[in-house]
Amino acid sequence: MRNERVPTGIPGFDKLIGGGFLKNSINLLAGGTGSGKSIFGLQFLYNGITKYNESGLYISFEESIESLKQDAEIFGWDFEKFEKNKKVTFLYLTPYTTTDLQALLAEEIPKAKAKRVVIDSISVFAMALNDLYRIRKQIYFLTSSLQKIGATSILTSEIVGEAPIDISGGGRDGSFSRYGVEEFIADSVVTFHNAGLGGSGDRAVRILKVRRTDHIKGPVPFEIGNQGIKVFQKERSYK
Ligand SMILES: Nc1ncnc2c1ncn2[C@@H]1O[C@H](COP(=O)(O)OP(=O)(O)O)[C@@H](O)[C@H]1O
Ligand SMILES: [Mg+2]
Question: What is the SS3 assignment for the chain?
């Protein structure tokens, strides 16, 4: 079915986007450092395994696998037990030695039998390519090969500073991604905000676009608690 959904299982999130990400879609999560992108990716994979019987592949260009698994453990997500039976595969890659990500994915995704893929982050991967033309070409081919492989993917994108809440003029440099192509290629763009002021209203998530979906438009507050990410009801933002 064309509009089949892949639920993230993240409390409160799926209903913002019509029940989940579109099946086989590419979803861009953009935000500053510490805004919750990696935790979202981990939670997406963990729920995939435990609630929806879908295997996952996590490709990290940033944090070490050890560190990611330690973050996950605090939320009670024991990935190690699922690594043993290949329900999840973690790969740490250095952006300077991995130049053909497309070929690597074509090999690793079927090997991992992954239905859910997280690439964290596309910004660090692209940083290693030295010219914008190559970057855009690689990202373009990468996304089209991800779609062909038949996995639902998350690409994280590190924004310098804070993702803008006022989107009327685009991002601060007219874009929500570093190279200005990711957001056009992606089927959905979600921004993570972290005002850095502390308190429960500090974090918000915003759905900028989802193809073929009538989605919630404004920023919606969320928290990172002892069970990971929990998105509040939309109404909370007005209280
Ligand atoms: N166990 C936890 N409880 C509450 N908040 C946490 C916990 N672990 C991490 N965080 C918060 O999550 C942030 C890191 O989230 P992360 O997903 O790694 O960010 P990003 O990938 O966007 O840089 C930390 O800065 C911290 O504020
Ligand atoms: Mg991260």
Answer: CCCCEECCCCCCCHHHHCCCEECCCEEEEEECCCCCHHHHHHHHHHHHHHHHCCCEEEEECCCCHHHHHHHHHHCCCCHHHHHHCCCEEEEECCCCCCCCHHHHHHHHHHHHCCCEEEEECHHHHHHCCCCHHHHHHHHHHHHHHHHHHCCEEEEEEECCCCCCCCCCCCCCCCCCCCCCCHHHHCCEEEEEEECCCCCCCCEEEEEEEECCCCCCCCCEEEEEECCEEEECCHHHHHC
Number of domains in the chain: 1
| Domain range for 223 | 5-238
Residues with CB under 6 A from ligand 1: 31, 33-39, 71, 74, 224
Cα(67) to ligand 1 centroid in Å equals 12
**Per-chain residues with Cβ under 5 A from ion ligand 2:** 38
Q: The pTM is what? A: 0.91
Give the model confidence (pLDDT) of 27-41 as tens digits: 999 999 999 999 999
Report which ligand 1 atom has the smallest distance to the Cα of 75: 1
Q: Could you report the per-residue pLDDT of 2-35, keeping only the tens digit for each?
A: 789 999 999 999 999 999 999 999 999 999 999 9
Average pLDDT value over all residues in the chain = 86
CATH code for position 75: 3.40.50.300
CA of 40 to the centre of ligand 2 (A): 9
